Amino acid sequence: MLKNNFSGYKLEVGTDEAGRGCLSGPVVAAAVILPLDFYHELLNDSKQISEAKRKILRPIIEKEALAFGVSFIHHEEVDQLNVLQASITGMQRAISDMKISPEFIIVDGNKFKPYQEIPYKTIVKGDAKFMSIAAASVLAKTYRDDFMEKIHEEYPAYNWKQNKGYPTKEHRKAIQEFGITKYHRKTFKLLPTQLKLDI
Predict the structure, then answer these.
(1) How confident is the model at residue 54 (pLDDT cuts 50, 70, 90)?
(2) What is the distance of C-alpha 181 from the center of its chain?
(3) Is the pLDDT of residue 190 over 80?
(4) Better-predicted residue by pLDDT, 197 or 125
(5) How far is 127 from 46, CA to CA, in rounded Å?
């Protein structure tokens, strides 16, 4: 059972990101403040539920949330910052995108940086423990998936519609065959032997 609240503060925001381990596309972060009495039987860590369920949940979360924010850290910035900093920056931007300022922040994972002197707690596997983090994980994942499906039209050979930019065999094979696109992260190990790739 996911818990509603960690801190006891009414305006507690949960934040999470999607796309950290991808070879292409953005890191997308989301932040959500849910009402204390929020409940939905489908809600869970976005990795544990199907794409169809995530699509059902997204409009419900956006309608019921007291506030939510979503931010995109595009591949160039991921390369500049490194992927961990990109995740933290993305989560902070998603929080600043909300129409309400939170009293407490709960973060999926074990790394974060102080944000506007608001107290925070990092929670490993938080998306499987707290509703607001799970809700943020659903928003981050669905917004990112939509983006990857859109750029798939531009570069269908990489099948991002299916693999969403993750390092599948098929994705790596396409990189080997066609090289990289403008959406690929240059600092990532795109092939098992980077030497074969002429960047």
Answers:
(1) very high
(2) 22
(3) no
(4) 125
(5) 8
Query: CA-to-CA distance for 72 and 62, rounded, in angstroms?
Result: 17
Side-by-side strand order, sheet with 27-33:
67-73, 27-33, 12-18, 104-108, 120-123
Q: How far apart are CA 143 and CA 21, in angstroms?
A: 16
Q: Where are the domains of the chain?
A: 12-152, 155-196
Report the distance separating Cα 38 and Cα 84, nearest Å.
30
> What are 15's two structure tokens?
């934040």
In this predicted structure, the answer to whether residue 193 has a pLDDT above a threshold of 70 is no
Helix (H) or strand (E) holding 2: none
**d(C-alpha 97, C-alpha 30), whole Å:** 9
10 Å CB burial of residue 168 (0-12, 13-18, 19+) is middle
Which tens digit of pLDDT belongs to each residue from 30-48?
A: 999 999 999 999 999 888 9
pTM for the model: 0.93
Evaluate whether 133 touches 18 at the Cβ level (below 8 Å). Answer: no
CATH 3.90.1750.10 fits 12-152, yes or no: no
